[in-house]
Structures are given as structure tokens and as C-alpha cells.
């Protein structure tokens, strides 16, 4: 679990057990960044379903304005950097 919750959260231990899920609590992302980058680059995890909007680099200011308004239903927005 990465991130902080202001209120207690419900956790279905039975469902996690059936899926053999492992929950690991991380405080301040300590030592996690290199592992996440490795998982992304290897294809072990796919974050594409989380990206709900993509903006061209020229629209970066607009992207930040929209992200700051926290539109309902948007999970992650990305800005495409020209190659």
C-alpha cells in the first residue's frame, strides 16, 4: 500500500488470500522507485489502463490546469514528451 489515507480503509483479507495477494506498507516510497522502474520496463506491470488522458507537450499548461481541478473519473494524466 503506497500513499496515505486520511480515514481507515476496508480490506477484504479473504479476497486477498484467495488471490494470494501480498500487501506491503511503504512509508514515503523508501527504496521503491528503482523496483517500480524495473517492473515497468520489464512489462511486469501495465499502467496503461490507469492513464485516462494524454496531452501533447505543447498543451502542458492546460494539462496541469485540468489535473489541478481533479476531474471525477480521471486517474492519471500524462504529457507526451516529443522524441
Can you give keywords for this protein?
83 residues, alpha+beta, two-stranded parallel sheet, 3 helices, extended
**Largest sheet: number of strands, sense, barrel closure:** 2 strands, parallel
Number of helices: 3
Mean pLDDT: 86
Low-pLDDT residue intervals, each spanning 5 or more residues: none
Q: Kindly estimate the percentage of residues that lie in beta strands according to DSSP.
A: 5-15%
Q: Level of helix content?
A: 25-40%
Please compute the radius of gyration using only Cα atoms.
16 Å
Strand order of the largest sheet: 1-2
Q: What does the overall shape look like?
A: extended
Number of strands: 2
Structural class: alpha+beta
Total domains: 1
Gap between N and C termini: 33 Å
Order of helices and strands: HHEHE
Write a brief structural summary.
The protein is of the alpha+beta class and 83 residues long. The chain contains three helices and two strands, in the order ααβαβ.
Verbal overview:
The chain is extended and about 45 Å long. It has a two-stranded parallel ribbon with strand order 1-2. It has one domain. It has helices spanning 13-18, 33-42, 60-68, and strands spanning 51-56, 76-80. The protein contains three helices and two strands. The chain is an alpha+beta fold. Helices cover 30% and strands 13% of the residues.
